[in-house]
Amino acid sequence: MDELIVEHIKKQALPLKSIDDLDVLIEAIGDKKYVLLGEASHGTSEFYKLRMELSRKLIETKGFSFIAVEGDWPACYEVNRYVKQYADGKPNARKALNAFERWPSWMWANEEVLELVDWLKKHNETKPLEQRVGFYGLDVYSLWESLEEIERYLQENGTPEQLAIAHKAFECFDRFEKEGQNYGVSAAFYGESCKDDVVKLLKALHTKRVRYDEDSEAALSAELNALAAVNAEDYYTTMVRHDAESWNVRDRHMVEALRRLVDYHGPDAKVIVWEHNTHIGDARATDMKADGMVNVGQLVREAHGEADVCAIGFGTYRGTVIAATSWGAPVATMQVPPAQPGSWEELMHRAGAHDQILLLRKEDPVFGHEVLGHRAIGVVYRPAYERGNYVPSVMARQYDAFVHVDESHALHPISLAERVF
């Protein structure tokens, strides 16, 4: 069967030799409003660069409204302030990227993202405010950072009632000293939950923004920070009991944050999402379904219809990657060994040891039915245990297209020593 798949790839793959070759993807996207751009790792330079080029083309030729990424709302909103040239924005891109302090900061504080941020600012310079392209974070980890941002906002713009609700929420979380796992254990096993307090805070912020039609991004940011706090509370509580369900809490949060951003930008909004393949590829086409897990790709397709969503996966046969051997450990450049025999990446390499693009159709008799191992590398990676990094997948049901980088290279993080403060 492997040889049949290899021959099928040879017949359908398109070479990727220059940036212009990405135009086939732009054509395939057409008028779709949701473009989900994946990555097989968070530490591969080519994935960031190719997604940047695709994003530039989509923004310039199809008027996409914003980029939303697998990052924390408060840190990403600092970048948004910079690229939209707000009065309180940072003076340059490097200072804007200093906001990424939580590990793994290098996911967004890197030279590749720096280039994207500088381009976004330049693109926005000639646009009226309402047409400037934004940069937002969808993730759920920023509980304490989001609470701090809410407090800062309410001190300037809040009502006495909102401030009272906020102070009660802050006091509830204070005793956990910014340790999500400690909070999760206390909430899950000892009934020491702050959930009611943060839900009240979210409702208070949302009601004020809608009631007074305050469409400033500052009000939106406060609301999204409150949403992050609510769902982070749920995430940490769930995490200590059930890993699969905590994954679902996280991905449902990202979809809800995306929905609110689209609502804010209006009915004509077009969205580019940057996340790991395991988030943007449809979970129903992988073994995640059997474990009761959902993800962004599945939920966005279900909400908006597959005809309005384009999910593009990215992968590599071998190379180097930035990652760590355990959570919170120092980052290092690691070797990515040649893909396992019979895996999707190995079959792509066997079909042609060069960069390629595949347009995928669910009806395809091979790509739409065969289950293949598909490599996924996280921020924690141990090449010696490579066999465990493969997700059984039906590729044409997981993605609408796939970009294969035959030999990839590590991302270029901006170290603390290099940062401009």
Automatic annotation (TrEMBL):
One of its GO terms (biological process) is response to antibiotic. This is Erythromycin esterase family protein. It comes from Paenibacillus roseopurpureus. CDD domains: Ere-like. InterPro entries: Emycin_Estase (IPR007815), Hydrolase/PRTase-associated (IPR052036), UCP036794_erythomycin (IPR014622). PANTHER family: ESTERASE, PUTATIVE (AFU_ORTHOLOGUE AFUA_1G05850)-RELATED (PTHR31299:SF0). It holds the Pfam family Erythro_esteras. Transmembrane segments: none annotated.
